[in-house]
Amino acid sequence: MSSVGGDSMEAQYIRRHHRHEPRENQCTSALVRHVKAPVHLVWSLVRRFDQPQKYKPFVSRCIMRGDLGIGSLREVNVKSGLPATTSTERLELLDDDEHILGIRIVGGDHRLRNYSSIITVHPEVIDGRPGTLVIESFVVDVPDGNTKDETCYFVEALIRCNLKSLADVSERMAVQDRTEPINH
C-alpha cells in the first residue's frame, strides 16, 4: 500500500477515473496496491461481479440477480466477525477495455449508506516483469455517531484486506501461469 504523490501515474489515474464528489456528510479515499501479476490475470478476478469471493476474504457467498449487465444486482453474504451479514450491490460500470469496475451498495444490514466504489487496474512493470497497479476508491456517508476519520479508517481497512488478498491470489495464479510443462 502506498500513499499517492502529486503527479505520479497513480495520481493521474485517480484524477481520470476516481473522481468522487463527496457531500458534507461523506468521506472518500483512494487506495493503491502494486501486484506482481500481469493485468489480464488481475482483471480476470476483479471483473467477476458474480464471484467476489474469489478474492474478497469477507464474502462467504454471492447470489446474482440479473445477467451481469449494468444494473445487475448481487446479494453478498458476509462472514461472521464483521458488523453485517448481507449486502446488496449493483453493478454500475464494467469496462473491459479500460479495466474499470464500479459498484454501488443499495441495501443490506450494515451502516454503509450511499457507498459507491470504483476499482481500476493498470499495467506496469515490477522488477522487470509484467505487473499491475490496482486503485480502489470509494465515497460513503458518515453514520450518525461516527467521525469522517473513523468511517474512512474502517472502509480503508476492509479495502486493504481485499487488495492484499487480490494480490496474493493473482500472484499465485501468475506463478502457476509461468510454470512450463515438464517434457519426459
Low-confidence stretches: none
Beginning-to-end CA distance, first to last residue: 43 Å
Question: What's the count of strands?
Answer: 7
* Total of helices: 3
Strand order of the largest sheet: 1-7-6-5-4-3-2
The arrangement of helices and strands along the chain is HEHEEEEEEH
Structural class: alpha+beta
Radius of gyration: 17 Å
The percentage helix is: 25-40%
Q: Assign an overall shape.
A: globular
Quick check: average pLDDT? 90
Q: State the major sheet.
A: 7 strands, antiparallel
Furnish the topology, listing elements before pairings.
Layout: H1 9-17, E1 26-35, H2 39-46, E2 59-65, E3 73-78, E4 86-95, E5 100-108, E6 116-126, E7 129-141, H3 148-178
Helix pairs in contact: 2-3
Please tell me about this protein's structure.
With 184 residues, the chain is α+β, with helices and mostly antiparallel strands. It has helices spanning 9-17, 39-46, 148-178, and strands at 26-35, 59-65, 73-78, 86-95, 100-108, 116-126, 129-141. It has a 7-stranded antiparallel beta sheet, with helices on both faces. A hairpin with a 2-residue loop joins strand 6 and strand 7. Helix 2 (39-46) crosses helix 3. The protein is globular, with a radius of gyration of 17 Å. The N and C termini lie far apart (43 Å).
Please provide a brief summary of the model:
The chain is an alpha+beta fold and 184 residues long.
